[in-house]
Specification:
By secondary structure, the protein is mainly α. The chain is built from five helices and no strands. Helix 1 packs antiparallel against helix 2. The protein is elongated.
């Protein structure tokens, strides 16, 4: 896949945003359906849950594959393990909610709906925490960026910074 300019870390990055947004929307649609008693919002919650679960598992699979090719330092490795754990827990929660709703064919008692809503809110917290850990891995530790590419970027930034300082100094002398 890398020959095509696309590798597992990039695929994971491409796949993870939409399911997270869909699962976020699921919780909002579910809460709105509960407050308004509107069937259209309940249906929207179920469809976004379906799409979020399918897409979320695709992102998890790509993430597990990405883990095999990322050059980790010790801090990055620990973050990756936490990210993976929270992703699996979060997807387990939303998969269980979807499975139960499908098993019961959406004929849920008030207590069942409340329990599933509570699980979905816990899953929502899981989405946020998993995304935060993923962002920390990418933006603070360069997950998915090879050491060679990172070194080249550091060199480029150092040269660019030096060049811009010279330009600023020259501009000041002209005035």
């Amino acid at each position: 896949m890398h020959d095509l300019g696309f590798d597992w870390p990039r695929l994971h990055a491409a796949l993870n945003d939409l399911p997270a947004a869909l699962l976020f929307a699921t919780v909002l649609f579910d809460l709105a359906a509960w407050l308004t008693r509107r069937d259209s919002l309940r249906a929207a919650a179920l469809w976004t849950l379906w799409a979020g679960v399918v897409g979320g598992w695709a992102a998890v699979i790509a993430g597990l594959q990405a883990e095999e090719v990322i050059e980790p330092g010790e801090a990055l490795h620990e973050l990756m393990e936490d990210h993976e754990t929270f992703a699996l827990i979060t997807m387990g929660i939303f998969t269980a909610v979807l499975g139960y709703k499908l098993f019961r064919r959406a004929r849920l008692s008030a207590g069942e709906e409340l329990a599933l809503r509570g699980l979905s809110v816990a899953g929502f917290v899981g989405v946020i925490w998993t995304a935060w850990l993923g962002g920390k891995m990418a933006f603070e530790h360069g997950a998915g960026v090879t050491t060679a590419a990172m070194q080249a970027e550091i060199q480029d930034r150092a040269q660019s910074h030096h060049h811009h300082e010279g330009e600023a100094g020259a501009a000041e002398h002209e005035h």
